[in-house]
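Question (not urgent): is this output format expected?
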Amino acid sequence: MKRPQILSRLLMLAFCLIFVGPIYGCSLRGHTLVCFGDGFTAGIGALPEQSWPSLLQKRIVLQELEIINLGYDGDTARNVSHRIKTDIIQHRPKMLIIFLGAGDIFPLGSVAAAYEQFPSVKTNFQNLVAGISDGVSEVQHDRPYYKFPKTYIVNTFGTTDTSAKVLHSALKRKDLFLQDGTDDFHAMLTVHGKMLEGFAQANGFDFIDNVWYGILDVTANISEDGIHPNANGYKVMEENIFVQLKPYIEKNYWVDGKMPIQTLLLILLGPIIFFMLIVFALYACIKIIQKFIQHITQRAPETYN
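Got this back:
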């Protein structure tokens, strides 16, 4: 390839980087984060706008990341398969938070029955993820660049000794776990959490623990049913969840007025890169002009003769 052709193509590349790049970057906005769960995600015990997904949305500047609350009271890991395509896949989420499991355990009413149900609960989570994977594969037929969303599994019952006692007392008022001691009840919740953590690690997901820290053991943060948080409790829950989402979200989106790292680097390096491109473009133009002048001067004697 001749040098003028190389220079002209490099100039075209510079034009694309300067003018087309920002347009393409803007098209990458509009990501979604789907919060998939039960009443704890729906915000039972408070108003919908006081749920933790709604509070999380308020952190996102410029609506770069849309938070979609798909929490339905009473849902379990067992009965949500029909919602995978209609709720999760249709939104093409960039991120996914799965907060399920309470409805699979609490209605059983005893620690022994809960332990017996654990293998089924794990299978239900596996089926849920398999269904999401199948949905992603279908999307990829038309959108090959779409990938499985970055997924977080929430520890449904991540509790301390004190909060386990409060939760146990609330369930007893509903005639559940009456024959079980608080220590056995807490041990069961711990085993359940370890099972979900192992499941998350095995699938390459992040595990969100301690979502109940500062909620169940603080009377002012619990609704009248003694199980669901109230408005104050959901504020604490959102903070507990955001702490573990923060590394990924702050890297990619405007949060709490803080610029994402990628954008900050672009702003810092952008002028330098732009200046270098301008210098290169001028250098290329000078070379092209020199070649043109050289070509004219070489032909001048021939014309004179």
